[in-house]
Design goal:
- The chain is α+β, with helices and mostly antiparallel strands.
- The protein has eight helices and six strands; from the N terminus they run ααβαααβββαβαβα.
- The longest helix has 22 residues.
- The structure holds 3-iodo-tyrosine.
- 3-iodo-tyrosine (IYR) binds next to helix 3.
C-alpha cells in the first residue's frame, strides 16, 4: 500500500473585488464559445494543442488514476478514414436509428450526415476513456469514475482551446468503435468523444441558440 505524502497547497487568496472581476471576465470569455461546424484548413501550431492537453490532464479524477488517452490526428489519410467511417454511422443515424423526437431536437442545429470538417480541420482529437490499465508488472489496475473524469478533462480541454483562440466541435458519431480500429487503441479504451479543432472558416455562421438563465440551472438553499 502506497503511503500518502503531503506538500503545502499553492494558494493565493485574492481580494473579493478581484475575485468578482475574474469570475465576470471568465464568464464573458466563455459565453463567446460556440460549437463550430465550418472549419478552415489553416494549420495550428502543435505546441498550443500540447499545452491544452496538459490542461486537460489537470482534471480532477477518480483516485488520480487519470483514465484518459488523447489521440491527436493531423495525418490526412487517417482523417479521411475517420470521416468515411463517421459518415457511414451518421447516415445510419439520420436515415434509420434516430427517433423522430431526436431529429426534431436536432433540427435547430441544421446538422446532417455530411462531415467534411473531419478532413478539413487541422486536428481531430479522439478522446478515449480507459476502464482499466495494465500496470508495469502486468497487473490490471481498475479505474474509478471513468465517465465523470473523462467528461471533466474534456471540458477543461474545450475551455483551454477556446481560451487559446481556437474553435471546437464536440462530435459523437454513434457508435464510434471504429476509432479503436483506425487509431489502433487497445481494448481497455472506449472512444468518449471526437473533438474537431482549428480556426473557423471565413464568414462562419452559427445557429441562433439561447442558454438557460441562472434561475433555471441553479437552486440556492
Ligand atoms: N452525431 C450526429 C447527431 C447529433 C446529435 C446530437 I445529441 C447533437 O447535439 C448534434 C448532432 C451528428 O454529429 O450530426
Amino acid at each position: 500500500m502506497k503511503k500518502a505524502q503531503f506538500v503545502p497547497l499553492e494558494f493565493e487568496e485574492l481580494p473579493v473585488a478581484e475575485m468578482r472581476q475574474r469570475a465576470a471576465d471568465f464568464y464573458a470569455q466563455m459565453k463567446r464559445r460556440r460549437t463550430v461546424r465550418d472549419f478552415s484548413d489553416r494549420p495550428v501550431p502543435r505546441d498550443i494543442i500540447e499545452t491544452c492537453l496538459l490542461v486537460a490532464g489537470t482534471a480532477p479524477n477518480g483516485a488520480n488514476l487519470q483514465p484518459w488517452h488523447f489521440v491527436v490526428v493531423s495525418d490526412t489519410v487517417v482523417k479521411r478514414k475517420i470521416r468515411e467511417a463517421a459518415e457511414a454511422e451518421e447516415r445510419e443515424f439520420y436515415q434509420r436509428r434516430a427517433t423522430e423526437e431526436w431529429l426534431e431536437a436536432l433540427a435547430p442545429l441544421g446538422t446532417d450526415a455530411s462531415k467534411p470538417f473531419l478532413e478539413i480541420a487541422p486536428y481531430l482529437i479522439a478522446i478515449f476513456a480507459q476502464s482499466y490499465e495494465i500496470g508495469p508488472d502486468g497487473t490490471k489496475i481498475k479505474h474509478y469514475y471513468v465517465q465523470e473524469s473523462v467528461g471533466i478533462a474534456t471540458g477543461l480541454l474545450i475551455t483551454a482551446l477556446h481560451q487559446s483562440g481556437l474553435v471546437t466541435l464536440t462530435h459523437t458519431p454513434s457508435p464510434m468503435n471504429f476509432l479503436n480500429e483506425i487509431l489502433d487503441r487497445p481494448g481497455n479504451e472506449r472512444p468518449f468523444l471526437l473533438l474537431v479543432v482549428g480556426y473557423p472558416a471565413p464568414g462562419t455562421q452559427v445557429p441562433v441558440i439561447g442558454k438557460k438563465p441562472l434561475n433555471d440551472i441553479a437552486t440556492f438553499l
